[in-house]
């Protein structure tokens, strides 16, 4: 029996907390069931085929579609109601990014439909239904996120919690499916490359899920099959971004927000020319390195070793620049005295947790490479470049995480209007200063008669003093004091502007560098696969399992860091 003397707010929080716990457990079980089904298909478990996995994913997408349509219809009928919004969630640049990835995902779905048509004689109908359902799911989900990512739901909270968490884990399962499919393709190519590096003791058994029939049009089949794997990185990023935005929406359900004005921080190219130029140079050189790497790797032992050496040297140079830029930014922060914003913010908290959590994937791979170099008995020349590369990966992420997390937690600087205002002080008695004619015209010549302009009435300069000596002292000292204050304020403002300009250039440079470092692993340039030394020390299958588990987090880290640095650039 409930106590009648209990606080209503405390009593009402229990159902909300229970709904949060129940919905999270529902989502986790949903995800684990799908994850086990995905794993069973990957290892060719008896009785589990790809059609079973796709049927499960189709069912989840259809349930999410029904919930989103219900939510959209209900919101349409209540569009006149004023709803609370989380101004930090669903930034416009984030919506534009997820829209771009969604468009490329739709191209991927169209390729899958074409691939199914060409192999329709030996493929399950679910492989044709899946891309169609996924395309519809993508269109409606992007529209939903554009319109309602900022919502703070206050009605039907229990039902909405289950609907949103279902959407979160549906996208995570679709992300897992994409990662696994793309990883299996990369693994097959990797096994073929190892032969050219002289690792003949590794058994080459290709894991082939290709259709067991001939294609109706060979040219189109080749285009579709190759194009699908080049588009998977964008599909993977789309689903992980969607899941993070939906997770913030889930955390905001029933939340009480403080109504305060949110300063808009648009992105401006002004003042970041240096950072953009250096970043574009890194981006261009990275694309060139990736192209050469993919062409040369696997051709012969000499070309493969040269490709790996080229990759390591380029990456070492870029990572060293990023470390120096991050250190400079942190030193600037140490010289400033600005308080941190510790208010409750689910979006900001999730950003910080994702940065540290996904960085662990790269750190795992780097420590594995360092241990392999130390323990290996034979060291080909190119493998020594892997040591500084792996160490810099650990250090760079450590420094960059500190910079980003502190940046998103720093309060925005308030502009002091006194710095922008030039105060003109006139002294009517015993003054050697004279007004210009234009100034006299403004005040109709009253300055010449000793009258104080109305602009200064009510201020400290327009007040009358009882004592003549006190008035004279005030008049003599005020211009000097005011001038000194303005000069000091101007100097502080100049120093602050210089620091902000440096920080904006650093954020712009790191933004483009993270985009550059996202490209190689996303498009198949993975020395962790092709180096070969780790496979000898740890064994082929154990190391491949580690790489396949850690690499998706490493790829996501770079894209998430780029998004966070874009926000830092806007705030600075």
TrEMBL record:
One of its GO terms (cellular component) is plasma membrane. InterPro entries: Otopetrin. It is a multi-pass membrane protein. GO terms for biological process: inner ear morphogenesis. Pfam families: Otopetrin. It is found in: Cell membrane. Keywords: Cell membrane, Hydrogen ion transport, Ion channel, Ion transport, Membrane, Transmembrane, Transmembrane helix, Transport. One of its GO terms (molecular function) is proton channel activity. The chain crosses the membrane at residues 26-47, 53-72, 93-117, 129-146, 229-250, 271-295, 311-333, 354-379, 502-524, 536-557. Its main location: membrane. Belongs to the otopetrin family. This is OTOP1 protein. It comes from Turnix velox. The lineage of its organism: Eukaryota, Metazoa, Chordata, Craniata, Vertebrata.
């Amino acid at each position: 029996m409930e106590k009648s003397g209990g606080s209503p707010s405390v009593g009402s929080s229990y159902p909300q907390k229970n709904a949060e716990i129940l919905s999270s457990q529902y989502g986790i079980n949903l995800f684990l069931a799908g994850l086990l089904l995905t794993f069973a298909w990957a290892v060719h478990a008896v009785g589990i085929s790809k059609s079973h996995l796709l049927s499960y994913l189709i069912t989840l997408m259809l349930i999410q579609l029904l919930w989103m349509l219900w939510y959209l219809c209900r919101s349409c009928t209540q569009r006149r109601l004023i709803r609370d919004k989380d101004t930090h969630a669903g930034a416009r640049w984030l919506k534009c990014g997820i829209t771009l990835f969604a468009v490329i995902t739709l191209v991927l779905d169209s390729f899958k439909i074409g691939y199914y048509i060409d192999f329709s004689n030996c493929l399950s109908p679910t492989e044709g239904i899946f891309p169609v359902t996924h395309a519809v799911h993508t269109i409606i989900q992007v529209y939903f996120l554009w319109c309602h990512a900022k919502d703070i739901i206050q009605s039907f909270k229990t039902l909405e919690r289950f609907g949103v968490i279902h959407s979160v884990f549906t996208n995570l399962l679709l992300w897992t499916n994409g990662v696994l499919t793309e990883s299996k393709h990369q693994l097959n190519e990797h096994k073929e490359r190892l032969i050219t590096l002289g690792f003949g003791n590794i058994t080459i058994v290709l894991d082939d899920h290709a259709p067991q029939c001939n294609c109706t049009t060979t040219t189109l089949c080749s285009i579709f099959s190759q194009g699908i794997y080049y588009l998977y990185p964008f599909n993977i990023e789309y689903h992980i971004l969607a899941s993070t935005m939906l997770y913030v929406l889930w955390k905001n359900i029933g939340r009480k927000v403080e109504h305060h004005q949110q300063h808009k921080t648009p992105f401006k190219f002004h003042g970041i020319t240096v950072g953009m130029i250096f970043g574009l140079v890194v981006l261009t050189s990275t694309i060139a390195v990736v192209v050469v790497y993919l062409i040369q790797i696997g051709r012969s032992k000499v070309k493969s070793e040269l490709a790996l050496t080229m990759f390591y040297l380029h990456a070492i140079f870029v990572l060293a620049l990023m470390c120096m830029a991050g250190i400079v930014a942190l030193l600037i922060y140490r010289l400033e005295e600005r308080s941190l914003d510790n208010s409750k913010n689910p979006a900001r908290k999730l950003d910080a947790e994702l940065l540290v959590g996904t960085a662990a994937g790269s750190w795992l791979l780097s420590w594995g490479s360092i241990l392999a170099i130390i323990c290996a008995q034979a060291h080909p020349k190119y493998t020594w470049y892997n040591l500084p590369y792996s160490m810099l990966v650990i250090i760079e992420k450590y420094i960059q995480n500190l910079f980003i997390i502190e940046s998103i937690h720093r309060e925005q600087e308030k502009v002091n209007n006194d710095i922008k205002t030039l105060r003109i002080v006139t002294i009517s008695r015993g003054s050697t200063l004279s007004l210009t004619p234009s100034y006299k015209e403004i005040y109709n010549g009253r300055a010449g008669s000793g009258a104080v302009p109305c602009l200064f009435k009510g201020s400290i300069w327009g007040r009358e003093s009882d004592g003549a000596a006190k008035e004279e002292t005030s008049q003599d000292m005020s211009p000097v004091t005011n001038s000194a204050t303005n000069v000091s304020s101007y100097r502080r403002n100049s120093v602050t502007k210089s620091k902000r300009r440096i920080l904006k250039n650093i954020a712009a440079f790191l933004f483009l560098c993270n985009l550059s470092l996202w490209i190689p692993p996303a498009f198949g340039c993975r020395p962790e696969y092709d180096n070969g030394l780790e496979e000898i020390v740890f064994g082929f299958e154990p190391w491949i399992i580690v790489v396949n588990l850690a690499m998706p987090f490493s790829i996501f880290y770079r894209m998430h860091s780029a998004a966070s640095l874009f926000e830092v650039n806007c705030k600075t």
